[in-house]
Design a protein that fits this description.
The structure holds two protein chains of two kinds.
Chain A: H1 3-42, H2 46-49, H3 66-74, H4 77-109, H5 113-124, H6 129-142, H7 149-155, H8 157-173, H9 178-185, H10 190-201, H11 203-219, H12 222-227, H13 236-243, H14 252-272, H15 274-281
Helix pairs in contact in A: 1-14, 3-14, 4-5, 4-7, 4-8, 4-11, 4-13, 5-8, 8-11, 8-15, 9-10, 13-14
Chain B: H1 2-6, H2 10-16, H3 22-52, H4 69-76, H5 78-110, H6 116-128, H7 131-141, H8 148-155, H9 177-205, H10 209-217, H11 222-250, H12 254-259, H13 271-281, H14 285-293, H15 296-315
Helix pairs in contact in B: 3-14, 4-14, 5-9, 5-11, 6-9, 9-11, 11-15, 13-14
Classes of the chains: A mainly alpha, B mainly alpha.
Chain lengths: 288, 316
């Protein structure tokens, strides 16, 4: 290639790089601006925050941890966190117990029907809470769980089971059949073979289910809002939006702290398990 | 083979290990999940339809058949037209935006640059954050007095007396009908963009290397490769991404509930939020169920399209 040619390519490359950095910055700002504003707010003093002429992005007065202290000691935030963790743990347990056998059955034992049935179950995930919350609030009341944390434990698996069954099916498909067949030839029953060979290999897959059942529980808002109205039973999403917002005074810093404290850990979890998550959402349309 | 001799004859084996028969074990293992779905999705769905055709309220829980009266009443209500229009407006407009932006963003993220991991983390934040908490962030970002966006606009002389957005010193994002609609629309775009992007990114990386190599050897430039290779190969995956985005936007009530509660004067009301206000807060379960039922046809349509997509990928 001639000298001028390479120079031209070089200029073009530099231009392309510039465009890539510019676009990456733009999108990162668009995505993260609310979070930046939230995090800055958390550490601001009242007089700094509520002076309209102050530069909102700077600390015009020294940053403070008092707002987090307020959130933890003066509000029911820790109750909400406790409720959320309890509900999430129970939902995760139910989800794992139901999805591991279901996904195994669909990938290994159901033959040609397995895949179609699996897609059918996944589509259940798309039935939105907004369609079901009215009859479900009646059902929840009828079984005596109205206003109780256990109402969410009962109902949340309706969306974690479909989603996680689908995720696990993808995982089981990647495990070679020979492993459990060999165990069965060695004299184990089918269940024994599953327990001794498939389950140990599937720990990463099951961990994915744990993470996403947990994350979906933290995300849920509509059912929690419809089922639980006493503050003692509320989860983070609903407690924060109804109890910390609806008062006469808005404690914006504490409110932002409440949101950010939850948002960052979940984001880290998602990033760790992103590939599995995407594999579930692409419906098998992408073969890696 | 010696191992075969070690296993008992088939009949005794089958009798002894009923659970070893695939025809028994398979359905048995599937049972808990299926029972759950039938009892707490299938049954409530039937109940929702029954509610929408009855006169049930929180006070009077009896189901008396009233035919399509709820649907007629709802359709006559002025709020219905607004809610229906907003639901479709927010869904279609945000997904058009998302599809455009996600294509660009996926291209950016598929190239190598410094700080890519950080950028990916930041871009995913809106999707990984529980939507109620993300919406609270926006509520504060769009505050009627202390919005930092307003502050920036004031600094660059776009807002305030004698400027194009003036004369008042604030935009009142959630208090004016058109700005409130724009805000809801932007939040939906913000929230579903990460999902569409990562789905498209997965599609991009799955394009076989030899196809890219062949295009490079033939001297196809960026735009040619985009139009003749990337877009056609990515179409199925784009459809998947859009369908998910549509479902999540179409059925969402959280953004509207947190940001505007449907206001000002129902101008951001959507079917889902209106169903909540009527059904749960207003106590009219029947009308609430009827409003939510209007979501159903579109969801069935999406489900059918998704099944078709999944079938196609299965056969190829």
């Amino acid at each position: 290639m001639a000298g001028t040619g390479t120079a031209l390519v070089g200029v073009k490359r530099a231009g392309a790089r510039g465009i890539i950095y510019a676009l990456a910055t733009f999108f990162a700002l668009f995505a993260a601006l609310p979070f930046a504003w939230m995090i800055i707010t958390v550490f601001k003093q009242n007089t700094d925050l509520y002076t309209r002429t102050n530069n909102p992005f700077l600390f015009n007065e020294p940053p403070t941890l008092g707002n987090i202290d307020l959130l933890v000691t003066q509000t029911k935030y820790l109750t909400f966190v406790g409720n959320t963790l309890l509900v999430a743990a129970a939902v995760v347990l139910i989800t794992v117990v139901a999805t591991v056998p279901a996904a195994y059955s669909l990938t290994r034992l159901a033959g040609r029907w397995g895949e179609s049935l699996g897609i059918g179950i996944f589509l259940v995930y798309l039935v939105p809470p907004t369609l079901l919350f009215i009859p479900l609030s009646r059902i929840v009341a009828d079984v005596g769980l109205n206003n109780s944390r256990w109402s969410m434990v009962l109902v949340y698996p309706t969306f974690t089971i479909p989603f996680c069954t689908w995720l696990l099916m993808g995982f089981f498909k990647s495990i070679p059949w020979d492993i459990e067949e060999q165990a069965m030839i060695d004299g184990y029953s089918r269940l024994g073979a599953i327990w001794r060979t498939v389950i140990p290999i599937s720990v990463p897959g099951i961990l994915t289910v744990v993470v996403f059942a947990f994350a979906l529980t933290l995300h849920e808002f509509v059912y929690a809002l419809a089922f639980v109205s006493s503050s003692a039973g509320k989860t983070i999403s609903v407690g924060v939006t109804t109890e910390l917002i609806r008062g006469d005074v808005f404690f914006w810093q504490a409110l932002m702290a409440a949101a950010v404290i939850v948002a960052i850990p979940i984001a880290l979890l998602y990033n760790l398990f992103l590939d599995r998550f995407i594999a579930g959402f692409t419906l098998g349309a992408v073969k890696g | 083979m010696s191992t075969i001799a070690a296993t008992p004859p088939p009949e005794t084996r089958e009798r002894r290990y009923l659970l070893d028969r695939e025809g028994v074990l398979g359905p048995l293992m599937l049972l808990p999940a299926v029972v759950y779905i039938i009892a707490l999705v299938g049954f409530p769905l039937g109940l929702a339809i029954a509610y929408s055709l009855s006169d049930v309220t929180i006070g009077d829980q009896g189901l008396d058949w009233v035919g399509f009266r709820n649907f007629v009443d709802v359709a006559k209500n002025g709020t219905f037209q607004k809610a229906l229009r907003n639901t479709f407006l927010f869904t279609l407009a945000s997904q058009v935006l998302v599809l455009t932006l996600a294509n660009i963003l996926a291209l950016v993220l598929s190239s190598d640059f410094k700080g890519k991991r950080l950028v990916r983390f930041l871009i995913l934040l809106p999707w990984t954050t529980p939507i109620a908490l993300g919406a609270i962030g926006w509520l504060w970002l769009l505050d009627s007095v202390y919005s930092p966006i307003d502050w920036v606009l004031r600094q660059v002389n776009l807002l305030g007396p004698g400027t194009i957005f003036g004369p008042r010193g604030n935009m009142y994002w959630t208090a004016k009908a058109d700005l409130a609609q724009l805000s809801v629309l932007l939040i939906h775009t913000w929230r579903t963009l990460p999902l569409a992007t990562v789905i498209l990114l997965a599609g991009l990386t799955a394009i076989p290397q030899d196809v890219k190599d062949a295009a490079n050897v033939d001297g196809a430039g960026f735009w040619r490769q985009l139009i003749y290779i990337r877009i056609p190969l990515l179409l199925p995956i784009m459809a998947v991404a859009t369908l998910f985005g549509m479902v999540f936007t179409f059925t969402d009530m959280t953004v509207v509930y947190v940001l505007t509660r449907g206001g000002p004067i129902d101008n951001t009301q959507v079917l889902a939020s209106w169903a909540y206000f009527k059904g749960i807060e207003g106590g009219n379960l029947a009308q609430g169920a009827a409003i939510a039922m209007f979501l159903f046809p579109v969801l069935v349509g999406v489900a059918v399209l998704m099944l078709r997509m999944a079938r196609r990928t299965e056969t190829t």
